[in-house]
């Protein structure tokens, strides 16, 4: 689905410019761009605020002065950006006026002549929501389905035709938390879940009951006998069924109207990488640091908030010594998984190697334990999934800042009280982090390099 992602500081700057005085005001967002499932994705990083003196108003609509137009176009040429037109109408359900439509018949074509091979966007801002459409050089156009602002809080601001529809009674007992507007926003957030097994399955369950209605499910694994102790989306007859298909079945049983994209492939497959560029929020429920490294890079490069779930049980001489997990959040302006030292480079290299190289490394004794399945218990998985769901709900509702690292220890190892502990861990950006230099580069990260020919 077509998407515009706006950093919080840019959104705040634009709103001050648009609504500081009465009347219509104008700006152009500067964005890097990519595509996902054939639809454009705009990754905004800056804005050109157009002075009122550069706007000529008439009965036919508004017109940008020659000086203003050259400033906007030349800025985009130098920065290699796509442009998104911005102006305000106010109100609760903004839409383009008849005069706006007249301008949009010609202006995108002019932009394409100066900025070839780049998408163009046009937006109208209301009191609290934004309506947008995209235009492509090949003649295609359409509504933008998702407009998000990510910072200390996550906002889904897109205006759609059902903005005024009442919220379903299903959510009556959680509206005090989310409000009707927030509940509608939850239904418009596209969530990507990579790994649909031990932690991914209860996460799917939690999110659909919470009100999420747009999912991308990615996993190349299928249900087998050893997963039936924890795969809450499966029944006894489901052995051999791909896990994302089981996730889709659960979602549709709760919400038949939900949109679910299923990709029964590895995260590094071309189809999975393409789909993930278009999600609004990303969840990683993976069991190795190779996949975790890819998801961390996607989150940074494409400015997608990312929640990473991990579970661990360590056994020594037949005795459980450690049991717990963690939930970490990679948010715009915050530390990434590398900053938090949550990616083992050796493990990542192994899992990002092709199958032949992995076999050679194991045979030669270069790595140990990489091919051993870790212990897994349904209740621990459910706990980690619930913690992640709560942090996501807090992020969307703004009840408090998101805790970027929550550590869960169900044994209380080394603690004064042997009990279940959930501890917030302080995490800061590492100024020397190489991965963080990828922030906002979009396709400049060349994420497809992780896809092997055999993938």
Summarize this structure briefly:
With 455 residues, the protein is an alpha/beta fold. It has helices spanning 8-19, 66-79, 98-104, 107-114, 175-188, 200-210, 243-254, 270-276, 289-301, 345-351, 355-363, 378-397; strands at 3-7, 26-36, 39-50, 55-58, 61-64, 82-88, 120-125, 130-135, 141-143, 146-150, 154-156, 190-194, 214-218, 259-263, 281-284, 306-316, 319-330, 405-409, 421-424. Helix content is 29%, strand content 26%.
Trace the largest sheet across and list its strands: 9-8-7-6-2-3-1-10-11
Give the strand content. 25-35%
- Overall residue-averaged pLDDT value: 92
Task: Give the strand tally.
Answer: 19
Backbone shape: globular
The helix-and-strand class reads alpha/beta
Determine the N-to-C terminus distance. Answer: 25 Å
Summarize the biggest pleated sheet: 9 strands, mixed
Helical stretch count?
Answer: 12
Weakly predicted, low-confidence segments: none
């Amino acid at each position: 689905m077509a998407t515009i992602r706006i950093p919080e500081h840019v959104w705040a700057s634009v709103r001050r410019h648009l609504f500081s005085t009465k009347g219509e005001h104008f700006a152009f967002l500067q964005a890097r761009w990519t595509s996902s499932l054939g639809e454009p994705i705009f990754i905004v990083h800056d804005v050109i605020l157009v002075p009122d003196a550069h706007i000529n108003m008439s009965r036919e609509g508004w017109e940008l002065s020659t000086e203003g137009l050259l400033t906007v176009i030349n800025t985009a040429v130098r920065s290699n950006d796509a442009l998104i037109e911005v102006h305000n109408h106010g109100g609760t359900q903004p839409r383009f006026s008849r005069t706006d439509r007249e301008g949009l018949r010609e202006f995108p074509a002019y932009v394409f002549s100066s900025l070839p091979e780049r998408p163009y966007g046009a937006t109208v801002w209301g009191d609290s929501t934004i309506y947008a459409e995209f235009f492509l050089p090949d003649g295609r156009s359409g509504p933008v389905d998702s407009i998000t602002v990510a910072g200390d809080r996550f906002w889904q601001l897109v205006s759609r035709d059902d903005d005024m529809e009442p919220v379903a009674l299903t959510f009556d007992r959680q509206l005090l938390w989310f409000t009707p507007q927030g509940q509608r926003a939850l239904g418009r957030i596209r969530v990507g879940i990579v790994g649909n097994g031990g932690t991914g399955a209860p996460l799917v369950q939690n999110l659909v009951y919470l009100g999420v209605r747009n999912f991308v499910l990615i996993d190349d694994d299928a249900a087998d006998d050893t997963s039936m102790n924890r795969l809450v989306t499966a029944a006894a007859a489901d052995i051999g069924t791909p896990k994302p298909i089981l996730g889709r079945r659960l979602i549709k049983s709760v919400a038949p109207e939900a949109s679910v994209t299923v990709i029964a492939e590895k995260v590094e497959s071309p189809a999975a990488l393409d789909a993930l560029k278009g999600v609004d929020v990303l969840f990683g429920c993976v069991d190795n640091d190779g996949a975790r490294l890819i998801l961390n890079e996607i989150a940074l490069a494409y400015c997608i908030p990312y929640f990473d779930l991990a579970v661990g049980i360590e056994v020594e001489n037949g005795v459980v010594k450690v049991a717990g997990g963690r939930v970490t959040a990679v948010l715009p302006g915050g530390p990434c998984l590398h900053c938090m030292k949550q990616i083992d480079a050796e493990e990542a290299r192994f899992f990002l190697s092709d199958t032949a190289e992995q076999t050679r490394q194991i045979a030669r004794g270069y790595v140990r334990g990489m091919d051993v399945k870790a212990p897994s218990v349904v209740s621990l998985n459910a706990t980690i999934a619930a913690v992640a769901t709560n942090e996501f709900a807090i992020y969307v509702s703004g009840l408090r800042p998101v805790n970027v690292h929550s550590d869960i220890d169900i044994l209380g190892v080394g603690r004064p009280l042997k009990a279940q502990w959930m501890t917030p861990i302080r995490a800061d950006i590492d100024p020397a982090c190489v991965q963080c230099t990828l922030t906002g580069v979009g396709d400049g990260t060349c994420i497809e390099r992780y896809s092997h020919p055999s993938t």
